[in-house]
Design brief:
By secondary structure, this protein is an alpha/beta fold. The protein is built from nine helices and twelve strands. The chain folds into three domains: 7-82, Arc Repressor Mutant, subunit A (Orthogonal Bundle); 93-163 and 272-292, D-Maltodextrin-Binding Protein, domain 2 (3-Layer(aba) Sandwich); 169-268, D-Maltodextrin-Binding Protein, domain 2 (3-Layer(aba) Sandwich), CATH 3.40.190.10. It has helices spanning 7-19, 22-29, 33-47, 63-90, 109-120, 133-141, 204-216, 230-238, 285-292; strands at 52-55, 58-61, 95-101, 124-130, 147-150, 159-167, 169-174, 194-198, 222-227, 244-247, 258-263, 270-277.
């Protein structure tokens, strides 16, 4: 029997391919397990290929299934974006942009970009999601975000990168610390103090850049805590659990129990970059890219 291939067949296939479990996929799709199994078999019949290997209760993708999962995920995401864009146009909007960002980008760069975007293109809507560097690069490739703001030194060839901010580092000390901006001489003065640093998993290249600073002063820091949030660093420093090093853009804070010392006499700088996929087909992304080139 011949079945017409429909959008839902691929949706159902991807649900099973993601979980490799028919019952779990059926529950997510709010359909019966036999119904889901029938839809997948129809897809296999239409294509004339086996997509899953079924061994008792275990399900695995064949090579053809792996390929179909990879390509369908990417292309169905593009189709979803096209359909959503069409809906926006029908409501009088020009389009929507999805931004990912690391926390420090929210200090100046993103607010400034959004103000300009709203002034020049008021019919473009947008959404924001704080994400680590790795997940932003991954989300650009899958079209889950359009533009990201990251602190990485290298990106895949499929990703465009534009530096939007190059800045110095700052020491973070408790307000009552014996050292301050007036009597500070060298980082070696802190070699016996515990440091609270951004986790290397959040940004390996940023972490390595900070380690370069310590290497320049010929000591290995005592790292007492790792975190991914500046607020956690500031709270720990404020309460005397250690000191830290952060990008200068993160010195704009309401915390009154801490102080900053800019390390402007060292060569190390940290770079914030805007990134986007070369294959992104969002019709309004170029408007934002044009604005980014003014930074």
């Amino acid at each position: 029997m011949s079945y017409q291939l429909e959008y839902r067949h691929l949706k159902y296939f991807l649900a099973v391919a993601e979980d490799l479990h028919y019952r779990k996929a059926a529950e997510k799709l709010f359909i019966s397990q036999p119904g889901l199994s029938k839809q997948v078999k129809q897809l296999e019949s239409h294509l004339g290929v086996q997509l899953f290997e079924r061994h008792n209760r275990r399900v695995a993708l064949t090579k053809a299934g792996e390929y179909l999962k990879q390509e369908s995920t990417k292309n169905l995401k593009s189709l979803d974006n096209i359909l959503n864009h069409a809906k926006l146009i029908s409501t009088g909007k020009d389009g929507n942009l999805k931004f990912g960002y690391v926390g420090s980008a929210m200090q100046d760069i993103i607010p400034s970009l959004l103000v300009r975007l709203n002034q020049q293109y008021p019919n473009i809507s947008f959404s924001l999601k704080e994400m680590d560097n790795h997940n932003q690069i991954k989300s650009l490739s899958s079209n889950d975000i359009d533009i990201g703001f990251v602190r990485v030194e290298k990106v895949p060839k499929s990703i465009e990168r534009k530096t939007v901010l190059k800045e110095s580092f700052c020491l973070v000390l408790p307000k009552g610390h014996k050292k301050n901006a007036y009597n500070f001489k060298s980082l070696t003065e802190f070699q016996n103090e515990p440091f609270i640093l951004f986790d290397s998993k959040y940004s390996l290249s940023y972490y390595e850049k900070v380690m370069e600073i310590f290497a320049q002063f010929k000591f290995t820091p005592i790292i007492s805590h790792n975190t991914i949030h500046a607020e956690s660093i500031y709270k720990l420093v404020e309460n005397g659990f250690g000191i830290s090093i952060v990008p200068k853009s993160l010195t704009k804070t309401n915390y009154t129990g801490i102080q900053f010392i800019e390390l402007n006499r060292i060569p190390q700088r940290t770079t914030l970059s805007a990134v986007w996929s070369k294959e992104n087909r969002n019709p309004v992304i170029q408007n934002a890219i044009n604005l980014l080139h003014t930074f």
